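Journal club prep — side note

Before the paper discussion, L.F. wants everyone to see what a predicted structure for a comparable chain looks like in token form. Sequence:
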Amino acid sequence: MKMELALYQALIAINVPELKAHAVIEALESDMYTLLATKSDISNLEHRLTAEIAKADVRLTIRMGVMLSATIGIMIAAMKFIH
């Protein structure tokens, strides 16, 4: 609220008509509420990203284990084939 009042007073001080000053303030408030993220928005996003990273970590670990097992199996088969 302080920012809106300060902006209004600044606009009036530079001789902006009162209706236009109100329009500027309303447009600014509208954009602030629709376009800017709040602390809770950021916190929710952080929790979702943390969960997604944890899921990706598990998937990556499983893939690496499968690839390592396959590689070891191929190497053992190649060694038996060579001897």
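L.F.'s comment for the group: The radius of gyration is 30 Å. Keep this in mind when we get to the figures.
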